[in-house]
Amino acid sequence: MNHWLTAPILIPLIGGILQAFMGYAPIALRRTLAIATTVLMLVAAIVLLVLADDGSYRLYAFGNWQPPFGIVLVLDRLAALMLVMTAVLALFCHIYAIGGTDESSRQFHGLFLFQLLGLNIAFLTGDLFNLFVAFEVLLIASYGLLMHGEGTSRTVPGLHYVVLNLAGSAVFLIAVGMIYSVTGTLNMADLAVKIPQVAEENLPLVKAGGMMLLVVFGLKAAILPLCFWLPGAYSNATAPVAALFAVMTKVGIYAIIRVFTLIFGSQAGELAGLGMDWLFPLALITLTMGVIGALGAASLRKLVAWQVIISVGTLLAAISFGTVAGTSAALFYLLNTTWVVGGLFLVADLVDGQRGSAQDKIVTAPRIANRTFLSVLFLMGAVAAVGLPPLSGFFAKLLILKSAVTESDVAWLWSVLLIGSFFTLIAYSRAGSIVFWRNVEGHIEEPQKLTPSLSVSASALISLSIVMVILAGPISRYAEDTAAQLHDTSAYTDILSKPMVGEEK
Amino acid sequence: MELAFAVVIGALTASGVYLMLRARTFPVVLGLTMLSYGVNLFLFSSGRLVTGGQPIIGSAETYSDPLPQALVLTAIVIGFAMTAFVVVLSLRSLADNDNDDHVNGRVPEQDRIPQEQEGANT
Questions:
Q1: Span B51-98, pLDDT tens digits
Q2: CB pair distance less than 8 Å for B78 and A136
Q3: For chain B, domain boundaries
Q4: Which ipTM score applies to this complex?
Q5: Alpha carbon distances (Å) from B30 to A14, B10, B27, B78
Q6: For the domain bounded by B2-107, which CATH number is listed?
Q7: How far is A422 from chain B (nearest CA, A)?
């Protein structure tokens, strides 16, 4: 039992409840408390990362109930990595939000913290139904955040987003019911033990359940047939919300990694590698679709939203190999893409504020104020997202390319990923050169002021890709250890035999 | 009992999916509600159907699995909150799109009534 595990859940929960009651408190107080909560959460996440790096599993069993009977929180390297990634992104998005976005609603900070709460539960939980609850917590907060802001443009994409996710939740419940009806457990470690022992006649049920889980996680992650809600929803959200949502698709990817390596991984007997043969072609088609969308994007925000889909395709292609090398490459790319895409959403919003009625549309307009600063940020973000040297995206994509082993995989992955990257590069160069270089006469009335909180948070997120290059050694070492830990599922199932009571004397 | 139960779940899910594919928000909300009813019943049945059983061992001759009951309770609460939210959101969409209750916020191209004809009808 380790009580630190509850910290990333309790901190945003308490902070969020406080915010809910302080809607009418002075905004300075609300902002200070909200940022303090996010900073505390980052500290807790880093402590957990250091704890988890010794490679053992730490448990927190609610009410001291021995798993599989009670709900457990499980901390391993993957969970800690996701927590830190989310906390870093959230901190910068939050700093950006206090630059003015939070003024239009009294409950912005509360919703933001509840969103983090849901994300953290999802990363820590070791129970399939608890994962469903975590998804609902983060979704209901995200519905509120998505609708946040002025104007009516968000209503229709928001409605689509909500209805789709409710349908997704229904499918999730059906899948959970199917799996429970056969195995009699929903604890992930216990499922990993029980799935290989499933009787022959019940296999189709579990298989259907597992595939439906893949559909749900695919909907969250935005794999191709389920990705068309994303560009509309993300490009209409306010900038810090869109940037935070960069991590929302990663929750789906996290769930795919967790469930399909642990429960339906190589040890799962008849069901080993369930769905993985579907995932690889779907991932490549998603990637292609994302590139086509990016080429046709009419505004910077749409372009970045399609970049989210491109990165989902790239990630899932690497994950679908089901190898240690593939997973560790995917984890490295995951960090890079989440932070950079988040940063690009913020930069797109800053550009929007400087261009008057041209907004962030990719059209010629009068020369923008602060052109050098913003264009350098955009250039760095684009280079990191496309995967050109010297920034971290290059190393991430290199690792992914190297992780393909069999000949057909190499042929498909290399050709799709490299040609895709080339066209993404064209999309970014076109957008950048039109927005920053092709100017017409005229001037813009009252461009938005670049306050420190706006410019610092946007540039910090983008420059994390430089930090990742400097720390590439330790980060890729950690990613490799994480992947190795993930694929050694017997250690995870050992948590079932750990006694919960009387352990610490 | 199993057959009746299965037919009910199937009917609820089928009508729910059909209604969700409609173009206006009200049928979609109804469809979501029916789908969640169907799903809740399905989840309940995942602990097997038992007649006259209690979820406590020893209190009756047979016992029923308590876990799906707890799961269903959670799912009902969450589903209820989400439905309330969708209703509010559809009303907001109605207000934001000039009293148009289409899911896309506008009348689909092929259903649009030509201007003069619309004038003649009113």
A1: 877 888 877 788 888 889 899 999 999 999 999 999 999 998 888 888
A2: yes
A3: 2-107
A4: 0.89
A5: 35, 16, 5, 16
A6: 1.10.287
A7: 34
